Amino acid sequence: MIHIAKTIWLGQGLYDNDDNDSLGPMISVCQNLMSGLLYSVTNVRRSSMLVVYEIVDYELPKGKWFCCEDCSRIHSALQNLVLRGAEIIPAPVSHIINKKLEEKGLTDEAGNDVQWQLLSGKVASPDHHPLLSKAAAIFLDCFDPIVMCGRDLVPIMVYGRNLAGQEFGGMYSVVLTVNSIVVSAGILRIFCRVVAELPLVATSRENQGKGYFQALFSCIERLLCSLNVENLVLPASEES
Hints:
Elements: E1 7-9, E2 24-28, E3 37-44, E4 49-56, H1 69-84, E5 87-88, H2 91-103, E6 114-119, H3 128-142, E7 147-148, E8 151-152, H4 153-159, E9 162-163, E10 166-167, E11 172-178, E12 181-191, E13 195-203, H5 212-226, E14 231-233
Parallel strand pairs: 13-14
Antiparallel strand pairs: 1-4, 2-3, 3-4, 5-6, 6-11, 7-8, 9-10, 11-12, 12-13
Helix pairs in contact: 2-5, 3-4
């Protein structure tokens, strides 16, 4: 997870200040990055990188605020995709699954209704809750708890909640369903067009080895390419 408590990026050319070393207290809020805090900014470089030394506890402004046009564009696209609901996977992605199933002699499963969907815990849709619950169950079955302040972070990330000053509201769940049943899921967060992270991804144990993870990852790659996101950060073990 990218930590932004000390340094935050507000977008190229957002500030042009050659004379003053301090702008005093100012609000830095980004609905896409979900970094809604009032910072005391004491140094502004020409590159628009703000070095933060003090966090001041003030009430946040109402409405949606974005640090740059890219974040506004990405946030709008993601929200629209969430509202659109499930989508049929592209033919090349379907081919990945069918090839794996044929290799395992599971040809009877080929041709199933396979869809992918972007979900947000902040969108109050009754249709999303069972999918989010199943995604959380897959993660909890495949991973050890990630504990902070006595709470497991996995459900908090899936539902985009906050915990002890940590903001997870910018996280989305991406699921792959077969005949409306979630078989593979990932947690995705996009930090402007520069980088996105995929901290968790898993396939239910009974469906592993069938190409579902590859299919889900391909859908995520296609999504990021459509948003012009340049880099994707993946989890890795110390041995890898």
